[in-house]
Design brief:
Layout: H1 10-26, H2 29-48, H3 53-62, H4 71-80, H5 87-91, H6 96-107, H7 114-121, H8 132-143, H9 152-161, H10 163-180, H11 187-200
Helix pairs in contact: 1-3, 2-3, 2-8, 3-7, 3-8, 4-6, 6-7, 7-8, 8-9, 8-10, 9-10, 10-11
Length: 204
C-alpha cells in the first residue's frame, strides 16, 4: 500500500502562487523556469513517497535564490552571516549558493521548517543522513524537465522506483560528470555513494 501524501490545501496553493511571483521577480527567466521545474518535480516525488507536497514545492522554488551570485558575493555572504566554508567550497564558491539560499529562505522568506531549509542547503552536494525531503529536492534538481542531458529520463525512472535507487543513480552520474572535467568530488558525496553502494549494490 502506497503512503498517503500530504496534499496542498487551497490556502497552500495561494501561498505558493504568491511565492512564485516573489521569486520570479528575483531570478532571470531561465533560472525561474528551472526552480519551477524543481518545485513541480519535487511535488511529484513527494506525492509518490507520502511526503509534504507543500514542503517539496517550497524548497524547490527557493533552492536557487543565490545561484546567480558571483564567487565574491557568495564568499562575502558566507563571511557576513557566519556560514562555514569548507575546502571544496573555498575552491568552488558556486557550491555555497545552496547554503546561502537556505539562509535567505530563513531570513527573508520566513521559512522555519528545518527540513525545508536542510533540503535547500544540500541540493547541490549530497551528504550522509539526508532526510526523504532532502533526497527529493536533490533528485528534482538533477532531472527536472528543463534538464535535457542524455539519461535524464532514466534517472527520473530510478527515483520513482526508489528514493535510494534514484540517489545512487544521480550521485553516480554527478561524480562521472565531475571526474570527466577534473573537478574534485566532495568527500561527503563519496561517503554517500559508498553507503548507497553497500546498501543497494552497484548500478550498471
Amino acid at each position: 500500500m502506497e503512503p498517503r501524501a500530504t496534499t496542498l490545501t487551497a490556502g497552500a496553493g495561494i501561498r505558493f502562487i504568491r511565492l512564485c511571483a516573489t521569486v520570479r521577480a528575483r531570478l532571470p527567466r531561465e533560472r525561474f523556469k528551472h526552480v519551477l521545474g524543481v518545485a513541480r518535480t519535487g511535488e511529484k516525488l513527494a506525492r509518490r513517497y507520502g511526503l509534504s507536497t507543500e514542503a517539496a514545492r517550497t524548497a524547490g522554488l527557493l533552492h536557487d535564490l543565490a545561484r546567480q551570485w558571483t564567487a565574491q558575493e557568495l564568499l562575502g555572504y558566507a563571511r557576513d552571516h557566519g556560514i562555514a566554508v569548507d575546502e571544496i567550497e573555498a575552491a568552488a564558491p558556486v557550491l555555497l549558493h545552496a547554503k546561502a539560499g537556505a539562509d535567505i529562505a530563513r531570513r527573508e522568506f520566513g521559512v522555519t521548517d528545518v527540513d525545508v531549509l536542510a533540503a535547500i542547503a544540500t541540493h547541490t552536494v549530497a551528504v550522509p543522513g539526508m532526510s526523504p525531503l532532502q533526497k527529493v529536492v536533490f533528485l528534482a534538481d538533477t532531472f527536472e524537465p528543463s534538464r535535457t542531458f542524455a539519461g535524464r529520463a532514466a534517472l527520473e525512472a530510478a527515483a520513482l522506483r526508489s528514493l535510494d535507487e534514484g540517489m545512487l543513480a544521480c550521485v553516480k552520474a554527478s561524480m562521472e560528470y565531475l571526474l570527466a572535467r577534473g573537478v574534485p568530488i566532495a568527500p561527503q558525496t563519496l561517503e554517500v555513494y559508498n553507503e548507497l553502494v553497500r546498501r543497494h549494490g552497484q548500478t550498471g
